[in-house]
Design brief:
Number of helices: 13
Largest sheet: 3 strands, mixed
Shape: globular
Structural class: mainly alpha
Radius of gyration: 19 Å
Number of domains: 2
Strand content: 5-15%
Strand order of the largest sheet: 1-3-2
C-alpha cells in the first residue's frame, strides 16, 4: 500500500473542524514576548533556533496573508490542501514542525512558504491543481524551502539580519492594522538597517535565487514520490502554466523561468497508475 493511503485516515483526524479550518492563523494576532529573542538576534548570533524561527515565520505568514487577499474561507478547499500537505509533511525532513497549509484569496499564480512550517498557495494556482498529484508537487516544493531552511540561511548569513530584527520586533505587539503597524515599526527601527518591508519584499516578492528554487523543485519532486504521489506532478503544473502563456507578472513571478525549471525535472508520470481490479 502506498504511504499516502496509509496516512489518509490519520491525516483526516488532524484537520480541524470548521471553526479551526483556517489553520488557527488567528493565533498569529496574539502578543508574543520577544525581548530576549530580539536581544539575541541583535547581537548577531549566528544560528536561528526553533523559537526564533517560529517568530520569524509568524511574521512572514501575517504579511503573506495580508498582501494576498486573506485566506480562502472554504472548508472543502482547506481540508484538501491540509490532507495533501500533512501527508507530505509526515515524510519530510522536519516532521516535528507544526505544519499549516492555507489557500490565499488571490487570482495570481504563486505559492509561498514561511519558516516554522507555514505553506501558502494562491487560489489562482490551486485551481490549476486538478489532482492531488499536481497539488502534492506544488506543496512539496514549498515544504522543501522550509526543510532546507532557505529563508533562515539568508538571515543567518547576515543578508537580512536587520530585517529579521524588525520582523521579530514587529511581533512584540498586537497585530491590528497591518499597514499601520509596518509603517510604525519601520519608523522606530531604522537603526536596524533593512526595514520590515524590505525583508518581506526579499522573501515574498523577489523570491530566492535560481539554484535555491531548483533545489526546492528537486526536493518537492522527491518528497511527492516517497509519499506515494506521482513524481511528475510539479513538472506537469509547470508545463500547463507554460502552455497558457499568461501574464508573467501573475505566474510564478518570484521563480526562475518555467522553461528552465521544466528542463531540470525528470519527465515522469503526473498520475499514479490505477491499481488493477482484483
Amino acid at each position: 500500500m502506498k504511504p499516502r493511503l496509509c496516512f489518509i485516515l490519520s491525516a483526516a483526524l488532524l484537520v480541524p473542524p470548521v471553526v479551526q479550518a483556517q489553520l488557527d492563523f488567528g493565533k498569529l494576532t496574539k502578543a508574543l514576548d520577544t525581548g530576549s529573542k530580539l536581544a539575541k538576534t541583535a547581537k548577531g548570533v549566528v544560528g536561528i533556533g526553533l523559537p526564533e524561527e517560529k517568530i520569524i515565520g509568524e511574521s512572514v505568514a501575517l504579511e503573506v496573508i495580508g498582501q494576498f487577499g486573506g485566506l480562502v474561507r472554504d472548508e472543502d478547499i482547506t481540508r484538501r490542501v491540509n490532507l495533501v500537505g500533512l501527508a507530505l509533511a509526515r515524510y519530510c525532513d522536519r516532521p516535528e514542525l507544526e505544519w499549516r497549509f492555507g489557500v490565499l484569496n488571490s487570482s495570481t499564480v504563486n505559492a509561498f512558504s514561511a519558516p516554522g512550517g507555514y505553506v501558502f498557495i494562491t487560489r489562482g494556482l490551486y485551481d490549476l491543481a486538478g489532482t492531488d498529484d499536481l497539488l502534492a508537487g506544488i506543496l512539496g516544493h514549498e515544504i522543501s524551502h522550509i526543510t532546507g531552511r532557505h529563508a533562515l540561511k539568508i538571515i543567518e548569513n547576515g543578508e537580512l539580519l536587520g530585517g529579521a530584527k524588525a520582523l521579530i520586533a514587529e511581533r512584540s505587539g498586537q497585530f491590528r492594522d497591518a499597514e499601520a503597524r509596518v509603517n510604525q515599526v519601520d519608523a522606530q527601527l531604522q537603526q536596524f538597517g533593512p526595514s520590515i518591508k524590505a525583508t518581506i519584499k526579499t522573501i515574498i516578492v523577489d523570491g530566492y535565487n535560481a539554484p535555491t528554487e531548483y533545489a526546492a523543485d528537486k526536493g518537492g519532486h522527491d518528497l511527492a514520490r516517497i509519499t506515494g504521489y506521482a513524481p511528475g506532478g510539479l513538472r506537469a503544473v509547470l508545463q500547463d502554466l507554460q502552455a497558457k502563456k499568461g501574464d508573467p507578472k501573475k505566474i510564478f513571478s518570484t521563480h526562475p523561468p518555467l522553461k528552465e525549471r521544466i528542463k531540470r525535472l525528470p519527465d515522469e508520470p503526473a498520475a499514479v497508475p490505477a491499481s488493477p481490479a482484483s
